[in-house]
Amino acid sequence: xxxxxxxxxxxxxxxxxxxxxxxxxxxxxxxxxxxxxxxxxxxxxxxxxxxxxxxxxxxxxxxxxxxxxxxxxxxxxxxxxxxxxxxxxxxxxxxxxxxxxxxxxxxxxxxxxxxxxxxxxxxxxxxxxxxxxxxxxxxxxxxxxxxxxxxxxxxxxxxxxxxxxxxxxxxxxxxxxxxxxxxxxxxxxxxxxxxxxxxxxxxxxxxxxxxxxxxxxxxxxxxxxxxxxxxxxxxxxxxxxxxxxxxxxxxxxxxxxxxxxxxxxxxxxxxxxxxxxxxxxxxxxxxxx
Length: 289
Ligand code: BG6
Prior knowledge:
By secondary structure, this protein is mostly beta strands. It contains two helices and 22 strands. It has a single domain, classed as Distorted Sandwich (Beta-galactosidase, Chain A, domain 5), CATH 2.70.98.10. The protein is 4% helix and 43% strand. It binds 6-O-phosphono-beta-D-glucopyranose (BG6).
């Protein structure tokens, strides 16, 4: 493990296990890459990403807390909460089974966080880099009153062409369609593809989601990426498509075919509450099948 200045001079950890490598920025505790040995990288990273204090990194795994999307009570607050732009603290690095490397990072509220979200909390994020990428975020209420929150690991998967992939594991689930006035809809049976701008929060989704990328290269044939999870009731599916990609300053106009967000979350109707002293852990494992 090494900490060196990454893009924009932000401190970056390079994690090397016997079977994979990963990169994590302290800024946002942001995993920007995971590459199993002999395979192409699993994460999409935008070439237009910012790497500066106060702005989120575009691609990889932004962490989202304590609200998902815009803050409904105050739209001037940053979208997706504030932890993706905070400098996290590196707490420990340990080696586990078969040489997997576990990196633990923590975050407590600073004065600015207390101003926009006056709650007392402690966050810990553990990234285990081995044959799979395991990520676990725990939230503890360290204050003296309950609070409600949303959270997500906003994972950007690299795909060869979004127009050819299929997504399995969400059949029959209700989703909030942000492209259609937040209408609640039901996902039909069977796998599905993406044919336009997509922004959906699927509710009550315990199952593993598998993305099949027929033209994606993998040493085992067509690429299949599985996202499995615990402590997460929601799954967000997002691709900006053409117009939204063009409208985002930190995303290349032609990059939209190369990514798909499958986000492990507790959002909207699946928001969580914690009593004083209570903790909740949400975890996700990203694996190449
Ligand atoms: C997704 C949201 O999770 O993130 C979208 O569902 C949003 O609505 C997207 O556009 C990107 O958000 P941001 O704040 O990183 O540009």
